[in-house]
Amino acid sequence: MNEFPSLLLQIITGLFHLIIFPGGIFALFVGLYFKGIDRKIEARLQRRVGPPLSQPFYDFAKLCTKETIIPATANPTVFFIAPIIGLTGMAVCAALLPIPGAYNGMEYMGDMLVFFYLLPLPAIALMIAGSASSSPFGAIGFSREMSIMLAYEVPLLIIILAVAMKVGGDGTAEFSLARVIEYQKDNGSFGLSLSLFPAFLAYLAFLPGTMGVAPFDIPEAETEILEGPLLEYSGPALGFFSLTSALKMFVVLGFGIVMFFPGTISDSIVINILWFCLKTLALMLIVITLVKSATGRFRIEQALSFYLKVPTLLALLSLFLVWCGI
Fold first, then answer.
1. Residue 130 and residue 291 in contact, taking contact as beta carbons nearer than 8 Å
2. Which residue has the higher pLDDT, 138 or 257?
3. How far apart are CA 210 and CA 230, in angstroms?
4. What angle is formed at CA 303 by the lines to CA 301 and CA 305, rounded to 5 degrees?
5. What angle do CA 230, 234, 240 make, to 5 degrees?
6. CA angle, 304 as apex, 299 and 308 as ends, to 5°?
7. Of 181, 189, 164, which is closest to residue 322 (Cα–Cα)?
8. What is the pLDDT of residue 115?
């Protein structure tokens, strides 16, 4: 009987983290606002006025008022399930993501391997959407998404292993994000470490690919396959995909900050949250906004060659340096 109040408290706490902070409302607000900032800065770089920062909120609200039209030849069940899969996966990731100095993550669940398993879900959702829509453009997008996902997941796994071995020491691996933050608090940021700086560069290369932005927006290339897997989507179903993208923006940027630059500047929880958001924003502007504004689109074979060479070799270099005890 004494265990019931404790279990109930854990359930309530878990729901709070999933629905309110750091997942749910907080992650969606930050992610959508980051999307707005991204579009605004990109427009300014291209000498355009650009939309207001709150435009992603307006876009989602407008989509919710529209009808979701299902193609006659599509599988309606899978067609509706696809966006929910990606959104659910990113919502769980956002709830598990630690915010240094403010939130330590969920005990026994904040594991880097959990993120490795969940981060591909939006890409998998796009592949399911492309196959369920019965559109030939969706099928092409499915094929491209699968190919590029397999390419950028390889360096990500090696990056995670290098970080885990650095924290574990003596040939062991420690995958707990809370332990990763604690280790860097005592020994300095991994992003400034000789052994893990190549892994940090590899993670920077991973970001545009996993977010599906130029030069790696090949699965949804508007000028070639008309948004590919998302061509037949409209209304709230398409809105769920936009929410998934916003949540993923927050998660992948925050995951990189936690792994390489989790330092805090104050004992105040509010200031540490703002500092975390500022670091993720800076990472977005440098690695996503500037890169996609300055580059064209790769061909699929160019993207595959890039990920299987540059980030993978950088990650392997870090893994070797960590194994050597550097």
1. no
2. 257
3. 16
4. 65
5. 75
6. 150
7. 164
8. 93
Q: Is the pLDDT of residue 158 over 70?
A: yes
H or E stretch covering 241: helix 235-260
Instruction: State residue 109's pLDDT score.
Output: 64
| Residue in 177, 197, 211, 191 with CA at minimum distance from that of residue 287 | 211
Output the CA–CA distances (angstroms, integers) from residue 133 to 72, 81, 268, 314, in the order listed.
Answer: 9, 12, 49, 38
Please say if the pLDDT value at position 1 is more than 90: no
| Nearest CA-CA partner of 88 in 19, 37, 1 | 19
Choose between 294 and 116: higher pLDDT: 116
Backbone angles phi, psi at 213, to 5 degrees: -110, 165
Residue 127 CA to residue 125 CA, distance in Å, equals 5
> Residue 40 is part of which domain span?
3-323
Looking at residue 139, what is its pLDDT?
Answer: 77
Number of structural domains in the chain: 1
What's the whole-number mean pLDDT along residues 5-28?
84
Name the one residue in this structure whose structure tokens are 């992948």.
252
pLDDT of 84-128, one tens digit each? 999 999 999 999 999 998 898 876 665 899 999 999 999 898 888
Residue (of 33, 126, 91, 17) closest to 247 by Cα position: 91
Query: Using 50, 70 and 90 to split pLDDT, how confident is the model at 224?
Result: low
Query: Any idea what the Cα angle at residue 87 is, between residues 17 and 264, rounded to 5°?
Result: 45
Signed CA dihedral, 288, 205, 101, 24: sign only: positive
Alpha helices (H) in 136-234, listed in sequence order: 136-168, 177-187, 197-211, 222-225
Please provide residue 324's backbone torsions phi and psi, each rounded to the nearest 5 degrees.
Answer: -80, -5
What is the C-alpha separation between 228 and 89, in angstroms, rounded?
22
Measured between alpha carbons, how far is 237 from 217 in angstroms, rounded to an integer?
A: 21
**Amino acid at residue number 32:** L
pTM of the model: 0.93
Question: What is the Cα–Cα distance from 8 to 227, expressed in whole angstroms?
Answer: 44
Distance CA 168, CA 265 (A): 26
